Amino acid sequence: MTMSARPALRPIRVGLLGYGTVGSGVAEVLVANREEIRRRAGRDIEVTRIAVRNPARVRAQVAATISVTDQPFDVVRDPAIDVVVELIGGTGIARDLLLEAIAHRKHVVTANKALLAVFGNEVFAAASRQNAIIAFEGAVAGGIPIIKALREGLTANRIDWLAGIINGTTNFILSEMRDKGLPFDEVLAQAQALGYAEADPSFDIDGIDAAHKVAILAAIAFGIPVQFDRAYVEGISALAGEDIRYAEKLGYRIKLLGIAKRRPAGIELRVHPTLIPTRRLLANVEGAMNAVWVKGDVVGHTMYFGKGAGKEPTASAVIADLVDVTRMLTSDPENRVPHLAFQPDELSDATILPAGEMETSYYLRLRVRDEPGVLADITRILADGRISIDAMLQREPDEGEGSTDIIMLTHQTIEHRIDTAIHHIEALPTVLSKVTRLRVEQLN
Fold first, then answer.
1. Do 134 and 251 belong to one domain?
2. Is 213 designated active site?
């Protein structure tokens, strides 16, 4: 049997904004895997224009048929360009370029999580008005197709919650602190030397990068507008090595998690260091790898694992988006997969719950005098706050110091209750330190 030949279609012409690590990876993979991509997309996909700050440097690296300019607005306004790929990053000129591209009826592929987390609602609304496609698989978890899984693969499910290790820098730091017993500052310097962390690592270690990503995932999972500004965000810079060691003794590992959880009163949207039972797959994701765990009501638990950043993984996601856009170019806009999985007029107005209403379990560490009655006072305060203890660890007293560490795990409770209890515990004369509080997720 002979397959009939498809009519030849002209190549899809791509304008590339930025030619750094990911941009060069996109251009290289489009050339290296051209035939495979054409067979999947139904036509060739070619970069025809690139906008960069230093055109001379890039011209020496690309084919002579590609136009290189330092005028990005010329690219997004070029009538010959079908798809604009934005890889500049940030929320400044990148936003203006995306909106200008949409105004000129260009489809857009972007890996810019900060832009979508802060201005995504504006960008998606503009795209809907112009029937433009915004594809953004590379914005979350690099080469892991978590956006497609939530938007398409899990469509039959009501998503109950998701939890993700979605920042490789912090996961590398926490893995090294646990494996080698090194302090935070030393491991951060090592991460910077290896290229995992930027010279200014605040977006990573303060949890902001992870919050950008979980805000996008929550919007797709629950059919809500993107609400990064409502997320609770706590980073890892204050995390002590002793808490990592105590967690291990109790059967847990500490990871920086992005969590989105549906509850009857609203949605929890939070990023913070979290104790996870060591038996969970997510607890065993090490180094700079990413993973997202999703709980759906029909499928149950699914986990998505892989490289969350880097040249090839992110280029893989960007090109997958280019193939998707190419396939959808001739489709009726009304029948395309919506940007946030749900039809734009069907987005929910569910409340993002304030931090005090979060519901989870807690790890508490406090320094106390080694004398009778101390533990009874602490447990009484917890009981008065309707907080029950799940497990406890007491360190041997320091010789001659008359003090010791008490570590407790609580059962699930509401955040404002634990806040009140900590306030009363710290007021006890036998308590010699501030209470270290970390959250615990069983992921079951």
1. no
2. yes
